[in-house]
## 1
Amino acid sequence: LADVGFIGGTGPEGKGLAVRFAHAGLSVIIGSRSAERGAEAATEVAGIGGGNVTGGMNLDAAAADMIVVTVPYSGLADTLADLEEAIGEKIVVSAVVPLNFGGGRIGVIDTADGSAAQEIQRLLPRSSVVGAFQNLAAGHLLDVAHLVEGDVIVCSDDKEALAKVIELAQRIEGIRGVNGGPLAVSRFVEGVTALLVNINRVNKVEAAIKVVGV
Ligand SMILES: NC(=O)c1ccc[n+]([C@@H]2O[C@H](COP(=O)([O-])OP(=O)(O)OC[C@H]3O[C@@H](n4cnc5c(N)ncnc54)[C@H](OP(=O)(O)O)[C@@H]3O)[C@@H](O)[C@H]2O)c1
């Protein structure tokens, strides 16, 4: 794996994962709708954890070997429509969670495809979509001195892609990748994020998950 590109990489989640991957020795490209914001985020990420980090447009990130999608769910369909050609048959990792903050309660939007990850697979039919990292919160990822402990549940219909993303997750010190099965299981992984956000809110923490017995 030569490099990882982030679509919508200028937000906390994209930057947080980028900090960890760059720190682990992978080359990272931060994508944005604005080349200037992409470049600024790259400077920030390199300043936190070091490594080889560049920034540019989402189209520049789409040229990487492996793509990680970290746009908000609301911008997902429009963003990927313009990138299908550039992404082609590559592995696309979805960290997207379709959260609903309406009415002061945090839940998950009931999406037509079952999950954001499955929606990405419909939007990018030629690529191998893998759901992962949805349960890792950005705050701790961005603090490189903090050991992020926890499991990353990895789901895909492409077994080879699934194995590669487990390896990617385990480049982050303290993280174990767990095979969660087919892409459709991402629905439940995305739901766990809503659970974690609620736990975080009432306990004033930034929680992660660990599965025992596996
Ligand atoms: N934050 C967390 O702790 C966390 C944890 C797990 C999963 N996630 C998931 O990871 C994704 C990113 O989270 P985040 O908190 O980093 O999000 P964010 O800051 O709201 O958005 C990330 C980036 O996406 C771009 N963007 C925003 N609206 C867009 C739109 N309508 N169309 C295209 N691009 C748009 C922006 O980049 P430019 O303006 O530079 O283009 C923005 O910096 C979300 O799907 C979230 O559910 C987040």
## 2
Amino acid sequence: MKKLVLILSAMYLAANIFAAEKKLKIVVSIMPLYNITKAIVGDTADITVMVPPGASVHTFEPKPSQVKDLANADIFIEIGAGLEFWDEKMLKAAGNKKLKIIRCTDGVKLMQEQGAEKEEHPEAGNPHIWLDPIIVKDIATKIYGAIAVPEYKEDPFYTKYAVFDMQMDSLDKYIRAEVSKFRIKNVVSFHPAWAYFEKRYGLKEVGVIEATPGKEPTPKELENIISQIKKYNIKTIFAEPQLPRKAADIIAKEAGVSVLILDPLGNTGETYVDFMKKNVDAMKEAMK
Ligand SMILES: [Zn+2]
């Protein structure tokens, strides 16, 4: 009997400790948002990513089980502007009235794409703002603002947020220095993911292989891209890990150029800075 009481009281204690350390539950849509959020919250929150490694956010179909993640979450962080074309349906199914929703594109002036076909997933403008470290500073501010809740006596996030903000300034300087050494400044990317990056750093997109990600170019579009490659003397075009690279290979063969990988989504096991540097390295190789 005494033993049972001990076990029960130990269990009670364990349950209380667990309750006291109940972690904030955050769901994010894509991996760059995971890495930005992780930099601010460290291990004090549980972060779940909806679009898994290897999947494209543009063709992603959420699993019904992911409704549960949203139902149990405190905060949902997404890019918005139609990137998460499934969000309304998922949020409705989750029915979580306490859920705080952060849309990173709120208040950001979005670039408008030209020529992209919009029937399938209408977007309010180009949503790929997370590939510009200066806009990412604003994203980090939004995330920090959402988690710095008054329940905390001391703000455990401010230092990490401030460090991340400074890292974005250094990354911006680093990219500027690297891009200034590029001999070629014209880009043919796989889909219009790099528009904000290119604008920020003075690169020019002279062609995209898939204006609508996941939809192969028509023969006429292929012809256009190949003539742009020749006109601008492009040596390398880009494919992406999350989308089939067939179209890039066909163009490369026709135009006599090589294919390198740019990764607009990355992985959870890396920092945002590493993720961006990896892409800058690929560009360096392509644009020298
Ligand atoms: Zn994209």
